[in-house]
UniProtKB/TrEMBL annotation:
Entry annotated with the keyword Lipoprotein: no
Molecular function terms, GO-annotated: hydrolase activity
Record-annotated membrane-spanning stretches: 20-46
Annotated Pfam families: Sortase (PF04203)
Keyword field contains RNA-binding: no
Active site: H147 (proton donor/acceptor), C215 (acyl-thioester intermediate)
Species of provenance: Flavimobilis soli
Protein name per the record: Sortase A
Keywords per UniProt: Hydrolase, Membrane, Transmembrane, Transmembrane helix
Length: 249
């Protein structure tokens, strides 16, 4: 190769070397981004569940009434008279109930705590009681929010519920058995689903109801999945356990 030809090819080589270097840097950046995104997914889908699980263990351990019902506990009849009135906690964070869902066989009961603050209530794996809504067994709408994915995902299987399924709520003194009556998917701003009479914010309640709310679709907060139910009856914890607790077992 002559010197003239070498001078002509040298710029091309330098341009090629620069292009290869740029491609290499971009490739390394893409790999780094991929690793970071992968770690984020692991954190979201696994580690948040681990963290929430640890907090739930601590919450349950602090309750002196949260022991699982004994296998030989008597099954008692539900009462349909007025249940004992429960006072709504003044401060967020108090555990007011445990929610058992027989349809979710194998799922631990969901701790229901006062308030719907995300970092301190929902992200700990608890269901959050909407302040101002009815307390368990009370006339009106006992409304509870929960995560459907991540952070313990207490309402992960909410879409599996069917009309007539039992939603069993336990407080320190009583059991309350609700039955699923309907499902709906709404936009986040449609807050009338937790009104005393769902969908009728101006109406005066005459029945005791329950509402579960969770994000929809999975891994999105674009909409809300709503389950409504009505109180079937109640019974004192001292009498035993409701038959509904073993449905599907």
């Amino acid at each position: 190769m002559t010197r003239t030809e070498e001078r002509r090819t040298a710029p091309r080589r330098r341009a090629s070397d620069v292009a290869y270097a740029v491609v290499g840097v971009v490739g390394e950046l893409l790999i780094t981004v991929g690793v970071v995104l992968g770690l984020f997914v692991v954190w979201q889908l696994w580690w948040t569940d681990v963290q929430a699980g640890r907090v739930q263990e601590q919450i349950v351990a602090q309750l002196d009434w949260a022991d699982p019902p004994a296998d030989d506990a008597p099954v008692a009849q539900l009462r349909t008279d007025a249940p004992p009135a429960l006072e709504e906690p003044a401060a967020d964070g108090d555990t007011i109930a445990l929610l058992y869902v027989p349809r979710w066989d194998g799922h631990d009961p969901v701790t229901v705590r006062q308030g719907v603050d995300r970092p301190t209530i929902l992200d700990t794996g608890s269901g959050g009681h909407y302040p101002g809504t009815a307390m368990p067994g009370g006339t009106g709408n006992f409304a509870v929010a929960g995560h459907r994915t991540t952070y313990g995902k207490p309402f992960n299987r909410v879409a599996e519920l069917e009309t007539g399924d039992a939603l069993v709520v336990r407080t320190p003194e009583a059991w309350f058995v609700y039955r699923v009556t309907s499902h709906q998917i709404v936009l986040p701003e449609q807050v009338d689903v937790i009104a005393p009479v769902p969908g009728e914010p101006e109406a005066a309640p005459e029945r005791a109801m329950i509402t579960l709310t969770a994000c929809h679709p999975m891994f999105s907060a674009r909409e809300r999945y709503i389950v409504h139910g009505e109180l079937e009856g109640w019974m004192p914890v001292a009498d035993g356990v409701p038959a509904a607790l073993t449905e599907g077992a």
